[in-house]
Each structure stands twice: as C-alpha cells, then as structure tokens.
Predict the structure.
Amino acid sequence: MKMELEDIEYRKQVVEEYRPDVERLIRYLPWLEEKAGSSVSKNFTDSGIGENSIPFPVYDSTLLGFIKEVQRTTLLDRNYQYIYSRHKIRTLADEMRAISQADIMHMDVIKGILSRYVMGGMTKGKLWSDAVKDRVFLECIRKMKENLEFWDKPMLQGR
C-alpha cells in the first residue's frame, strides 16, 4: 500500500515537472508529422562559395524555433549518455523501442534521447535533420504528451 502511494506521488511530481515544457513543444507536432521522412535542411551554396569552401547546412526556420524552444525547457539532460548505456540504446531502432516502451516512470529515457539529438546537433548539425526525418523528435514529444495525458488532463495543441 505504501509503495502505491509513493508511486502515485511520484507520478504527480513527474506531471508537474514535465507538463509546462511539453505543452510548449506540442504546438510543433503538426509540423513534425508533416516533415517526417523528409529533409529539413540543405547545404548553402550561394554567394560564390567554391570547391575550396566547406559546405554548411541551412535549416528550416521552424526546426530552429523548435530547437530553441527545447533549449528553454528543463528537458535537456547533459548526462544523456548514461541513459543510452544504462538502457543499452545503440541504434535508431533501439531509440524508437525505448521511446515506445517508456511510461510516466521512465520519462528520463525520452528526455535522454531528445537531449542527444538537440545537444548533439549543436556540433553535428546533421543530427537535427536526422531527428526530424527519422521521427525521433516527433515520437519523443508524442510519447511525453501521451504519458502526461494518461495521468492528467488532455493538453491543447494550440498554445
């Protein structure tokens, strides 16, 4: 009986902690659904950049808005590598499986996967595009929303 009460209290705490940040991100769900499977960046080639220059990516403005919004939340975990090693996550399939299996008690797993792509994309820009194309961002936000709504009231997407 005591364990159940502790679980209920922990779930309430998780809902209170995650809900404001997830509510800020769910407005990106329609865009993430629309862009899933497609590229949201292209290499800059204008202004006479020649063969001797390093190409750099130019991102969709909505993607940059999403990244900045995530960076303003408490959903980034600088120690995401521990989540990956603890849960033996090595491939995209492992990530997707971990996301789909994560319940309210394992929101840290989703947070870790989201963190890997957002923070890793700061130095390896291809990660942001991959996360949209491979549905990682979409599934992370969807699953967080689903978990919170299961234990609390529905969230409105238009905020």
